Amino acid sequence: MALFKVGSVQAQPEIFAVLDVGSSKVVCFIGHQEAGAGVRILGAGYHASAGLKSGAVVDMEAAEYTIRHAVTKAEKAAGLAISSVIVNVSTRSLKSRHINVETTFSSAEVADKDLRRLVDTAMAEFAEPEQAILHALPMNWTLDGERGIRDPRGMFGKNLGVDMHFVTANVGVLRNLAHCIERCHLRIAGMIASPYGAGEAVLVDDEFDLGVTLIDMGAGITTAAVFRDRTLVYVDAIGVGGKNVTSDIARGLTTPWEAAERIKTIYGSALESPDDDTQMVPCPPMGAQDELHHEPLSSLTSIVRSRAEETFEILRDRFKDAGIGDFAGRRIVLTGGAAQLSGAVQLAEYIFGKRVRVGHPHGLLGLPDEMTGPDFAVAAGLIKHVFHDKTEANNGPPDLSGRRIRQRRYAGGNVVRSLKWFKDNF
Ligand SMILES: Nc1ncnc2c1ncn2[C@@H]1O[C@H](COP(=O)(O)OP(=O)(O)OP(=O)(O)O)[C@@H](O)[C@H]1O
Ligand SMILES: [Mg+2]
């Protein structure tokens, strides 16, 4: 993760760069930890996306061009050249899996090696070679059946157990993303699930403690993360976002896509209002043969509402199926550009039956004014995440080899990784 000053070879190891690779824009933040003050953004840049759809590369060259431009803007602003990045992951394949493992250990006192062995066993049990592990989070340790143990080391017992939460994504999608970033001459220092990152940027301590659901509403994808007792307990993603609302408007009101995008942000709302039937929306023509026409605002509201409603309902049903309904607390925080849709908060409150607010990034020094909106929550969260110690059992980029993890491998390099985690976090 070393960075070098332009025109010099002096290493600045404490400086990090992050990339939010989105369907509508790519954002790059370069930052460092300022002693006694917090994380400062040294340079930020973004560029309209091409070649990227719902977190996946669909046109390698176009995506490379977009990433290069966003990075160059941030580098110029920071006066630095970067050589590695931490990148977000927000593909449809993003998912959670929980694995519980137990072991009987020989010595009476729990030691580092016992925790390590257990985490490694859980990792080996995760037999989904087409999914790469992004995050491996121990949620709950048990000792002789006793639950809720934060750190079992130094305690006495016979049976040690752990509930591991794995956040994973499709290896093929990640490989393409990695390849695209490497074509920009950048090394990948880590990959972080988008809603996990966004949570870091916008949530407050009470929400993390009591339970909260973060929903990041992007252009091509909507992702969600549930936090409880300061731990990420669930993630999900659906391949629907603000672009779908725009397409529905373009089709429903027979107007070009760009016009539909403008109509959405100016007149669009997920809530009906009394003057919807009297107010008319000007809809630019589809082609030279066509003429400007006007449609009642009620038609637009109904188009926007049904897509937003459907998105929230799918998520609500997924949460229910995953059994995290009550677990997820009484609060929902929306981020992403599409969270700015008028009436989105009220509609979400109605569908989920919870308190809902829009989350803006906080706690970063030097964040440019135009990047303080909910659409910059992921980038802001990634850079905060880098500087905060996390209770994770894996560090660095995920293994994208697609090979099944075998426990034997953990006798080698990865033990060092888990060891680092145990040192950092306990
Ligand atoms: N005021 C607004 N009202 C409604 N939608 C809006 C508003 N402002 C922005 N959007 C929508 O937000 C979306 C862009 O959000 P964002 O920048 O978070 O996406 P992204 O990160 O590039 O994409 P993704 O996360 O899906 O890959 C677009 O669909 C845009 O139309
Ligand atoms: Mg996004």
Task: Report what the structure shows.
This protein has a six-stranded mixed sheet, sandwiched between helices. Helix 9 (344-352) links the parallel strand 19 (331-335) and strand 20. The protein has helices at 60-78, 112-125, 171-183, 194-202, 205-210, 242-252, 257-267, 297-321, 344-352, 377-387, 413-425, and strands at 4-5, 15-21, 25-34, 38-48, 52-53, 56-57, 80-81, 84-89, 95-104, 131-143, 146-149, 159-170, 187-193, 212-217, 222-228, 231-238, 280-283, 293-296, 331-335, 355-358, 364-365. The two termini are 24 Å apart. The relative contact order is 0.15. The longest helix has 25 residues, at 297-321. By secondary structure, the chain is α/β, with parallel strands linked by helices. Helices cover 33% and strands 30% of the residues. Helix 1 packs across helix 3, helix 2 (112-125) crosses helix 11 and helix 8 (297-321) crosses helix 9. The protein has eleven helices and 21 strands. It has a domain at 95-168 and 389-425: Dna Ligase, domain 1 (2-Layer Sandwich), CATH 3.30.1490. The chain binds adenosine-5'-triphosphate and magnesium ion. Residues 22-25, 49, 55, 90, 218-221, 241-243, 246, 261, 264-265, 268, 336-338, 340-341, 375 line the site of adenosine-5'-triphosphate (ATP).
Keywords:
426 residues, alpha/beta, Dna Ligase, domain 1, six-stranded mixed beta sheet, five-stranded mixed beta sheet, 11 helices, disordered N terminus, disordered C terminus, binds adenosine-5'-triphosphate, binds magnesium ion
Briefly summarize what is shown.
By secondary structure, this protein is α/β, with parallel strands linked by helices. The protein is 33% helix and 30% strand. It has a domain at 95-168 and 389-425: Dna Ligase, domain 1.
